[in-house]
Amino acid sequence: MPNLFKLCSYSVDESADVPGVIVEDIVYPLADVLRASNTDPGPLTAVQALANWAAVGARIRAWMKDGIEAAPGRPLAQMRLTAPLLYPRTIYCAGANYADHIIEMARASGDAVDADPRAALGQPWHFVRPSRSCVVGPDASIARPPGCAKLDWEVELAVVMGATARNVTAEQALESVAGYTISIDLSARDLSRRPQMAKGSPFHYDWLAHKGFEGSCPLGPWMVPVEEVDDPQRLSIKLAVNGRTMQDSNTSQMIFSVAEQIAHISMYTTLHPGDLVLTGTPAGVGNARGSFLQPGDELIASIERLGALRVSIK
Question: Which metal ions or organic cofactors does this protein require, according to UniProt (predicted)?
């Protein structure tokens, strides 16, 4: 009896994207899975499933135990996967959450390096990214934004919320998580600042052009439920460009843990099912190397237990 599953979204023959359950490389429509367990969900999206994830996840596991033959499936190889969530409600993105990345970026810009990045930061730091325009799925082909010659890569562990979280402690935070997926945080480095504005001005930085452009948040290839990940702080995390490994680290190197980030965000706003928390990237980005993405480049981001996400630049 299989005991592992993944949540995905897919389309067949250019039809509308629908949520699915992947078991042993077979994709089953989530609606059929729920009907097999005597629940008729009606029209359903992955985000809607996450709104009642405790019950939905339990029904999926019951179906795997007793009735997997009751739902017709198709081989994963025949399916076109889309981003697992279409679309996340809100995307919270951590900045400066791996010490080695802070060091490489400081050196690239000629800034001083903090001896203790956690003490210097004091608390997690996040920005909010547009969802519908930014999120794309596996095998997407992404254009550089207008005026960008320095498009950069960042692989990140993405946390998928499965319950509301408000004023939770770090000890409570993971209870609200449904699962994990992979994200590539694409960054237009040369659009991040407006040179005509004084460096101390709040208008010197342009986060929309830097991080919020079309296709800037590849996501996928699926969501792995939290029960299948023993410890989100012990996962290898890598990214390769054209087959060359650029980033190779471990989530144990985060400055602020997944739980600490969720707790911090929940101090200011309610996290909802279907929200994403991108948790930062390790060293190895292009900006530190003076190397940037060009049309035709292929990126493969991989995280232990979560699979691999491939996209290309056009």
Answer: Mg(2+)
Q: Which of 123, 118, 119, 131 is nearest to 92 (CA)?
A: 131
Residue whose C-alpha is closest to residue 129's, from 275, 300, 311? 275
pLDDT in tens, 82-124: 999 999 999 999 998 999 888 888 787 777 777 788 888 899 9
Q: Are 304 and 182 in contact (CB under 8 A)?
A: no
Tell me the helix, strand and coil percentages in the chain, rounded to 5: 25, 30, 45
E strands in the chain? 6-11, 18-23, 26-29, 74-75, 80-82, 91-94, 126-129, 135-136, 141-142, 151-152, 155-161, 177-184, 187-188, 217-225, 236-241, 244-250, 276-278, 298-303, 307-313
Smallest CA-to-CA distance from 47 within 84, 100, 92 is with 84
Q: How far apart are CA 128 and CA 174, in angstroms?
A: 21
Domain made up of 91-313: CATH architecture: Alpha-Beta Complex (3.90)
**Which residues, at least 6 apart from 104, have a Cβ–Cβ distance to it below 8 Å?**
283, 284, 285, 287, 288
Kindly tell me if the per-residue pLDDT of 14 is higher than 70. no
In 26-153, where does DSSP find H-type helix?
Answer: 30-36, 46-50, 53-66, 99-109, 117-121
311, two tokens: 């996209």
Kindly list the domain boundaries of the chain, sorted by start residue.
Answer: 5-82, 91-313
Single pTM value for the model: 0.94
